[in-house]
Specification:
about 130 residues, alpha/beta, Oxidized Rhodanese, domain 1, five-stranded parallel β-sheet, about 45% helix
Length: about 130
């Protein structure tokens, strides 16, 4: 993994990168189910204690630099927060550190809205098989 200077990242930023930095819920759920994505909830501890979605790992944004060794460089790292503002900050940091990182455009509120009832049951059961 090679770190990328921010100026170099900006010089190479184009429409393809703009598209590649985002991931929508259906693709993220499929990558996670297939073991190809590591999902990181980057919210503060208090937010996580108040509620979480049951998938992914909790690493608060302000702890990410000190816990970067917990990430699997062989997987796509998907960062998430309720909407996506902090997730994009985390994604950019990870991208500059040499990870393949994307942020969840639907946010965690999108996950909560999607994974309900039978859909939640079936998805969580698929993770166990």
């Amino acid at each position: 993994m090679n770190a990328i200077p921010f100026a170099d990242y900006l010089r190479g930023f184009d429409y393809d990168e703009r598209k590649a930095m985002k991931i929508q819920l259906p693709e993220m759920l499929e990558l996670y189910r297939a073991g190809k994505a590591q999902v990181i909830d980057i919210r503060f501890h208090e937010e996580y204690e108040a509620w979480n979605v049951g998938i992914g790992q909790h690493i608060p944004l302000n702890e990410l630099p000190n816990r970067i060794d917990e990430l699997d460089a062989q997987k796509t790292i998907v960062t998430m927060c309720p909407h996506y503002d902090r997730a994009e900050i985390a994604r950019l940091y990870l991208q500059l550190e040499g990870f393949h990182a994307r942020y969840l455009t639907d946010g965690m509120l999108g996950i909560a809205n999607h994974l309900r009832g039978d859909i939640a049951r079936d998805y969580m059961n698929s993770l166990k098989s």
